[in-house]
Amino acid sequence: MKIGMPEALTVSSAVLFVGGQVIPGWTFFSLGILGAIMRLGLEQQAKQEKAKAIDDTAKSINDAGEAIGKFISALANSDSNNKSVH
To answer: At 7, is the secondary structure helix, strand, or coil?
Structure first.
C-alpha cells in the first residue's frame, strides 16, 4: 500500500473534524480526494500508454515479418523464372 499526500490530507481532515475545525477539515478532505482522483487518472494514462507501446511494437514486428515474407517470395519467384530461361 502506498501512502502519499492524498492519504495524509484525508487523515489530517479526520483529525481536524475531531478537533472541531470543520472548514479546514473539509478543505483537507476535498484536497485529499482530488489528489487521489488525479493520481488514479495518471496511473490509468500510464497503463494506456504502455499498452499502446506494446501494440505498436507488435504491429512493427508483424509488418517486418510481412516484408521478409514478401522478399523471400520474390526471391523464390525470381529463382523459378531464371530456371525456366536456361
So the answer is: helix
The x, y and z cell numbers of residue 4, run together, are: 502519499
pTM higher than 0.70, yes or no?
no
Q: Which residues contact 14 (CB under 8 A, 6 or more apart)?
A: 25
Taking CA atoms, 5 is separated from 34, 46, 67, 69, in Å, by 11, 20, 51, 54
Q: Give CA 15 to chain center in angstroms.
A: 36
Instruction: Give tens-digit pLDDT for 21-73.
Output: 999 999 999 999 999 999 999 999 999 999 999 999 999 999 888 989 888 88
Which among 40, 58, 53, 57 has a CA at the least distance from the CA of 4?
40
